[in-house]
Amino acid sequence: MGVRHINPEGLHRSPAFSQAVVVEQPNKTIYIGGQNGVDSDGKVVGPTLGEQARQAFRNLAAILESEGASLANIVHWRLAAVDGTSIDEGVAAFQEVWNRSDPPPAITVHFVAGLAPGVLIEIDAVAVV
What we know:
Blueprint: E1 3-6, E2 20-23, E3 29-36, H1 49-66, E4 74-82, H2 87-97, E5 106-112, E6 121-128
Parallel strand pairs: 4-5
Antiparallel strand pairs: 1-2, 3-6, 4-6
Helix pairs in contact: 1-2
């Protein structure tokens, strides 16, 4: 695929994320805008960050599938969670959808003052196919 996941010596190693992902050659790249935990009617699916994260991951998977890709093609996630929520629920949702045999993507997490009404998490991503 022309993608290398790197974790240079001297940096923290984690099974949950790569420090960086390098695209070695021109490939189809999909930049996915922030996905919230909303259903096809635009309604927030539940009151917890975990429920909303699971839906956001389903939304991301649907976008990727529409382009012949999958979550395994993700090279970078960016998560924005409302300050005061437990990101542990989002991490648990990620672990439910990520195939542990695939190299983990680079991940950035931000805590923010707020998102759309009732929304606790927003996830955007970059995928290379």
